[in-house]
Amino acid sequence: MANEEDDPIIQEIDVFLARSLLEKLYLFQYPIRPASMTYDDVTHLSAKIKPKQQKVELEMAIDTLNPNYCRSKGEQIALNVDGTCTDETSTYSSKLMDKQTFCSSQAASNVSRYAAAVYKKGELHLTPLHGILQLRPSFTYLDKADAKHREREAANEGGDSSQDEAEDDVKQITVRFSRPESEQARQRRVQSYEFLQKRQAEEHWVHLHYYGLKDSRSEHERQYLFSQGHGLAENTELIKSPSEYLMMLMPPSIEEENDKPMAPSNVLSMAQLRTLPLADQIKILMKNVKVMPFANLMSLLGSGTDPTAVLRCVQQVALLVQGNWVVKSDVLYPKDTSSPHSGVPAEVLCRGRDFVMWKFTQDRWVVRKEVAAVTKLCPEDVKDFLEHMSVARINKGWEFMLPYDEDFVKKHPDIVQRQQMLWMGIQAKLEKVYNLLKEHLTPKKPEAQSAHPLLVSGEQRVNMAKAKVKQNYGQLEKELQKQKAEMKSKDTRMDIPNIRIKEEPVSEEEPMETSAHSEGLNNGLVNGLHPAQGSMDPVNGHLPGACVDRVAQELKAFVSSTFKKQFVLTLSELKRLFNLHLASLPPGHTLFSGISDKMLQDMVLDTGCKQILVPFPPQTAASPDELKVYALWEAGDTYDQHRQVLLEIFSKNYRVRRNVIQNQLSQECGEDLNKQEVDRVLKVSFCSLW
């Protein structure tokens, strides 16, 4: 209070906000000049501006009559820039440096806190500034002088050389055609310094007129610095509380906020993470951790998170390997990216990493050389794959990073079964891409880990393996006999006349991979599911009578819809599509009861399809399932007759020339088909093999 009494208010000034020159008013800061000289005395020859860049260039006349002006130096500069001849393009037409160019640069990036003030008759009028530009001398004329000098030197050298030497300087020109520019390359080009410079150079100059301080036009424009209306309606910005008014005058600096230390782009605090949607949280966690048990994932997401929702989201970004979740390859390697080591595209990297993940579903150990031999990728890429999910052990290979999670497998058998179906589909793709051999497909039996490993000879290993096979065979035989006895006892107690059980010989065909029986015989580890934990409704290929009709109906519906979309399929391709169909079904579906190859082939024939006995060469490398070709004989469309003719042709020879097909179709169908129509018939009939 004492300080306020010592400093009393002696005058109150009304403040007005002028809007007439809003976003049009610039402040120019000129170089230091003598105090006795005013810029009103300087002759402004020209001025121009680029509004988008806020760039200004001014040309001012130099007083050549001033005693401080060095005339000889001015003549030398003009001679260096323009040479001896003078024309319209000359910079200095008077053969004397009689003008100077000033070029602007922005003094401040944020000018919202600055305004021009005019005080008149007890009123203060403020006009916000749109830009503050500092004008500095431009020395581009020196660049022009250097260019002239180089041209003269080149002309002198060219004049001395003979015509023969000029002919010897002919160089070969290589013509190259540019490839289509990708979106990523276009973005890099747009953000480059060269492109920005080109864009700035393309903006046209707007020429300005300079009016002196005492000019009538300047006086007229100066009136716009005053507020045109003093009513409160036009100055509502100034009707604020003292604190709000102070905040408007001195807003918090954006630059200060930007100066705060930023965390790395790949670091996210848990508080920030939990503000994101659940799916994004899981994706970020899996992308950073790469391998994680489900219990750890739930602990990171915080209490109160629904486990069912987490399971639904984690299956979108990860796959189950030995009971643990491993991030998917396409999450780590998005589309249109490449390897930092070899430049290999993301699609090839994803296939290679999927192969490594699939190998870990078969065994806890993976050999790096084996992966490199199959995937044909560079050692650095293979090492990255292995480091994501395993640990190197000396003289042993790479061991999976986490132990087998039995708790998760026991609690969520439906998830495990669904993931197993997905892995079977991935395995089918890998077999086609890498032409995997049986030694790659057969899972290795887990060896007992002991503190003191013993050296065992090859003959002893063979004898041990034979004894183990006999032991396992005896146990399986006992279990089979026991199950048959139970089934017979149930049949004697049940008196239902409409039960039909389809008998199939066990040894005639191998069961498809959709049956978990074949996995149970391996004593191995398939996608983290132990054989004893697989749900097996059928026994030795026999289904309960009440389920036979439902299974047959579901299987027939799948086969019919598949052959209506793709009229010709090999057994291998049909099994792959069936595995993908199983993966899309809910847990506990009737088709999970086990479908053998023979059941599938019988159903194909029952739906009106025929087996086409294509005479493949005996030295073919195709598998037996790829040699079995089935085709829908009558689909009810306009191409039925053409398709039947084509199938008859390919039943006699596996390779036929196009002109032979065209002639045969014309003879059998009575139509004159051209090349395009024949291609259309082939594409429609053999779309899956095209």
TrEMBL record:
Keywords: Coiled coil
Classification via InterPro entries: RNA_pol_III_Rpc5, RPC5_C
Claim: Cytoplasm is one of the keywords in the record: no
Limits of the DNA-directed RNA polymerase III subunit RPC5 C-terminal domain: 444-688
Pfam families documented for this protein: RPC5, RPC5_C
GO BP: tRNA transcription by RNA polymerase III
Region Disordered, residue ranges: 146-169
Source organism, top-level taxon: Eukaryota
Biased composition (Basic and acidic residues): 146-155
Residue ranges the record marks as coiled coil: 466-493
A GO cellular component annotation in the UniProt record: RNA polymerase III complex
Protein name stated in the entry: RPC5 polymerase
Species in which this protein is naturally found: Platysteira castanea
Name of the gene: Polr3e
